[in-house]
Amino acid sequence: MASFVDRVVLHATGGNGGNGCASIRREKFKPLAGPDGGAGGMGGSVILRVDGQVTTLLEFHHLPHRSAPSGTQGMGDYRQGANGEDMILSVPDGTVVKDTDGNVLADLVGMGAEYVVAEGGHGGLGNNALASKARKAPGFALLGEPGSEASVVLELKTIADVALVGYPSAGKSSLIAAISAARPKIADYPFTTLVPNLGVVQAGSSRYTVADVPGLIEGASEGKGLGLEFLRHIERCAVLVHVLDCATLDPGRDPLSDLEVIEQELAAYAPDLQSDGTRVPLNERPRVVVLNKIDVPEARDLAELVRPEFEARGVKVFEVSAASHEGLKQLTYVLAEYVERARKLAPKPSMARTIIRPKAADGSEFTVQRKESGGQTYFEIRGTKPERWVRQTDFANEEAIGYLADRLAVLGVEKQLFKAGAVAGDEVRIGPEHNAVIFDWEPTLVTGAELLGGPRGTDARFAESQSNRPTRGDKRREYTERMDAKAEARAELWTEREQGIWTDPEIDADAPVDSPSKD
Ligand SMILES: Nc1nc2c(ncn2[C@@H]2O[C@H](COP(=O)(O)OP(=O)(O)OP(=O)(O)O)[C@@H](O)[C@H]2O)c(=O)[nH]1
Ligand SMILES: [Mg+2]
Asked: Which of 17, 87, 253, 407 has its CA at 20 to 30 Å from residue 471's CA atom?
């Protein structure tokens, strides 16, 4: 089973925002004491955070789908819903976040560096917050927004100062084991190392990290051997060390041609764009040559023979033996100098606790476009605000729909629709094609737009719906009318029965004993 994973696809979903609450406060002697529905809680976000204890992306390999908890609903008595907790996912230092097209979204370097993959949805407002002069007691609340969804690729790029590259069995793992406390697997068959190993080297007062990566062979850039996949681990290394095997018995190989082959493969690898927009090819980094295995007499002879040829090319050469440790001390000190020089040129960014969020879209703009599909024209509205408002609307509630129309009109959506040539009955879609809310632009909406031209609180549709609701005066009038009618009827009855004893209907009609509950 895999125990080291350096590339995974993560599907993250933020928690949904809780719905707002529509509630009316009840007090003693004042049963309708105003709207008191609270807002829903915010959904939790899915956040990546660099943790020094984590060295692999294995966890995501096992659980690639993550979602943060949702916020809870608002409640009466002005109570807000609880926020969903953020889901913090620990990633190793040097994790690169990319979108599924391969564009770099974030480069997480430094303890505590964070990236929000999927944001939680906002909670909907309760009717308390929606009350205005026009809507003193809104009979609706806003829905919570769904959390955002994102699929990202996580890639681990080991961060080391020095990288060891070379053919399989050249002795890279033996070398890192000899100069650091790392204990990688060493064996005399090719491709012993399958995942990068890291070691820390102390040379005098200088301390640096070395990465040992799987062996390269000719054609690695076309996928031969283990391919070039793992070369991303040396992208962040400032200095390259070519480990050349001087004791190989392979007739077709010698240190010089080995170096050329590896250089070609390095040149074929295209590193990712850096955050500063540059791309430093691997074969342009400072490098040194290590001629290994000089404890073998033939190897020592060969090393001495080829040394001048390398030096003629201007590279520094070290003759060493990972087995007997000969020449290693000098190597580690010279590497320390290289590392110090590279560090001075490009100081490591101290990015601890950087919080990078996805770019917030500008909420003020929207577009209205005339489109056609299957011979039918429709008008498409796109924009952060209109789309959010649609998501917040409870379409089962007429008042909530009225409120949406009001908001859209104030934003100028209706006006733009007129300009774009929309007429009553045209189809209007708000949102992305696959997930749009479709309206028929009805005359009521048209008049709505005109009526809403005035200040807030002059929504004629609302006034109309209010006039449908009986006021206290209406109720009183209705009551007296009913009583009058009843009195008349009773008077007639008495007149018939008593034959004139009760001839004045007014007496009974005004009697205080009459109350609606008694009939
Ligand atoms: N005699 C001698 N043998 C060595 C020396 N360094 C490594 N070896 C041997 O070479 C073989 C390969 O060594 P590794 O360190 O596994 O080589 P590698 O470059 O890491 O190989 P891969 O991981 O397959 O790419 C082993 O059998 C080692 O014992 C050395 O300095 N002298
Ligand atoms: Mg190895």
From this structure: 407
Q: Which helix (H) or strand (E) holds 67?
A: strand 65-67
Separation between Cα atoms, residue 484 and residue 121, nearest integer Å = 58
Distance (Å, rounded) from C-alpha 262 to C-alpha 358? 39
Q: Collapse the DSSP code of 64 into the 3-class scheme (helix H, G, I; strand E, B; otherwise coil) and give the result.
A: coil
**Ligand 1 mean position, distance from CA 284 (Å):** 27
The CA-atom distances, in angstroms, between 102 and each of 151, 182, 378 are 12, 32, 35
Structure confidence at residue 360 (pLDDT)? 54
Nearest CA to ligand 1 atom 12: 169
Per-residue H/E/C for 192-227: CCCCCEEEEEEECCEEEEEEECCCCCCCHHHCCCCC
CA angle 472–475–476, rounded 5-degree value: 90
One-character DSSP codes across 139-203: S--PPPPPPPEEEEEEEE----SEEEE-STTSSHHHHHHHHSS------SSS----S-EEEEEEE
Chain mean pLDDT for the chain = 81
**E-strand stretches of 283-343:** 287-292, 316-319
Closest among 258, 285, 260, 257 to 271, alpha carbons compared: 285
The reply to whether 190 sits in an annotated binding site is no
Task: Give me ligand 1 centre to Cα 242, in Å.
Answer: 14
Spans of the chain below 70 pLDDT: 1-4, 272-280, 346-364, 442-471, 486, 488-519
With contact defined as beta carbons under 8 Å apart, do 502 and 508 qualify?
Answer: yes
Which residue has the CA at smallest separation from atom 24 of ligand 1? 191
Distance CA 145, CA 70 (A): 10
pLDDT of 508: 44
What is the reported pLDDT for 504? 43
The DSSP string of 115-143 is EEEEPPPPPPPPHHHH--SS-SS-S--PP
The answer to the question of whether 381 is labelled as a binding residue is no
Overall pTM > 0.80: no
Cα separation of 480 and 486, whole Å?
A: 10
To test the ligand 1 pocket, which listed residue (167, 185, 186) has its Cβ within 8 A of the most ligand atoms?
A: 186
Protein residue with least CA distance to atom 16, ligand 1:
186
Burial 358-367 (b: 16+ CB within 10 A, else e): eeeeeeeebe
